[in-house]
Amino acid sequence: DGGITQSPKYLFRKEGQNVTLSCEQNLNHDAMYWYRQDPGQGLRLIYYSQIVNDFQKGDIAEGYSVSREKKESFPLTVTSAQKNPTAFYLCASSLIQGAGEQYFGPGTRLTVT
Amino acid sequence: GIQVEQSPPDLILQEGANSTLRCNFSDSVNNLQWFHQNPWGQLINLFYIPSGTKQNGRLSATTVATERYSLLYISSSQTTDSGVYFCAPRWEKLVFGQGTRLTINP
User: What is the DSSP letter of A97?
Assistant: First the structure.
């Protein structure tokens, strides 16, 4: 089955800890994306990657970091520098960046207390 | 910056009713997607529609790029249609509106 998987579904962390969210796709897509969604709001772009070993900041990159060592994987680290990390995080992919339909994973709900 | 406005913000209907959701955007776009976010948060692709009209079962969408708007039509609503509907026009990247929360009562 082709698709995008995110793990874990729910994640709880103490303030001051870094946490890494996983995103894997087997759609053979070059481009991958991370979005943040706050309650009652639309999605905002954190980071995106057009190709392996390349990534660009989105609209709200502060306090986050990413890597893209493999085409299939685009993990997101929420660092302790992120002031309001509690949110719903969604990963997406598309065949190429800037064109083509984006498909989304099921999301990870992160709660930091 | 680029603006995306969806209306209405909330819509409550009885099962069987029809509805029209609107998306206005502030600049010409390369493309546009409509999504349904279910109660578990999953974003489901509905339409990929830069212009013209597409239909998929009880749902159809029309984008008039020159007038900078898109419409999503839902006919004969079912309770499973409940959720939040997002439009996301694409310039260099997708830009999401705030969504329309649709509630279909039995």
Answer: T
Rounded mean pLDDT, A93-100 = 85
* Whether pLDDT at B1 is above 80: no
Spatial separation of the C-alpha atoms in residues A108 and A7, rounded to whole Å = 7
**Residue B76, CA atoms < 13 Å, CB-side half-sphere:** 3
Amino acid letter, residue B11: L
Exposed e or buried b per residue across B55-72, where buried means at least 16 C-beta atoms within 10 angstroms of its C-beta: eeeebbbbbebeeebbbb
CB within 8 Å: A106 and B48: no
Tens of pLDDT, residue by residue over B32-76, are 999 999 999 999 999 999 999 999 999 999 999 999 999 999 999
Assess A2–B contact: CB distance below 8 Å, yes or no.
no
Helix (H, G, I), strand (E, B) or coil at B66: helix
Q: Which two three-digit tokens encode residue B18?
A: 């029809």
Whether the CB of A106 is below 8 Å from some CB of chain B: the reply is yes
Q: Which helix (H) or strand (E) holds B36?
A: strand B31-37
Cβ atoms B17, B30 nearer than 8 A: no
CB B81 within 8 A of CB B104: yes
